[in-house]
Automatic annotation (TrEMBL):
PROSITE patterns: WD_REPEATS_2 (PS50082), WD_REPEATS_REGION (PS50294). WD repeats lie at residues 10-51, 93-125, 138-173, 180-221, 261-297. Keywords: Repeat, WD repeat. This is Uncharacterized protein. Pfam families: WD40. It comes from the Eukaryota. The keyword 4Fe-4S does not apply.
Amino acid sequence: MTDLTKLTEHMLHKEMVTDVCFSANKGNLFSVSQDSLLKLYSLEQKQQLRSASVSHMALSSCIVMNDKTVVVASWDNYVYVYNMEYGRVTESAMAHEDAVTDLSWKNGMLATASWDSTAKIWKLKPRGDKNGFSLHMELEHESGVACVSLDSEGENLVSGTVEGCISLWKLQNAFCSGQFHIHKGSVSAVSFSPDGYRVASCSEDKFLKVLDVQTGTVLFMKDVGSPMRCLSWDGATVFTGCDSGSILVWDLLSAKLVATVPAHSGPVTCIHVSDDGSLIATGGSDGKVVVWQSGEP
């Protein structure tokens, strides 16, 4: 069982927090919101270091590409590259024909999802001291794509749509290796297991499901009684964020719910686990960002 201890809680945004992510050294925390702001918060100094207005519309996702660079997705169809040293956007690209809903980053590959019914794969293209992206492939879907996740090698992609479909893609040849209509509501989040053999998904339909990538078999399914907005996979543990305001902690080895942690006064809208699994950040519709210490009791 994993224990969560609240380390810090801050009202960083005026509207719903849509994504959170740690810097590589866990010293800083980035957050984006429907208030169109990117925030940088220092966990060491316990204060906000930067607030950047990236777009005139809501921001949906952020990833830390390296210590200097954060990539941000927006409802204005653009993806922005924000340089922390310069304190400004250094690159922007109209990535889709509708709102960009999610980002995933592995091994120099950027995946983007959009309500325009596509997921796209971009390759990092260095330009001197700046970073740009060139389109590598476009993956067509039958409905809007709500979420995407690359596996640890950046060789496979899983996507989830607003109609409840999970798709698996082999990026070597842009081949769709499977489509699974396993949710009755929009898929909120998808994630590969660390070994790449399973995919976890959660949905507005209140179900958490785990899919075997090779066979397409649903290995685990649970109605949690509340719509889920987000999930993060760490080893044998899956964390999900619910509209009830709680974080649910699942041990997939025993297929059991091991903890229910009250986190926000409204829906938990995003969750991120640090690379070493020691810290967890959550964001909520209440505008708060909370950082938790993870440990074994």
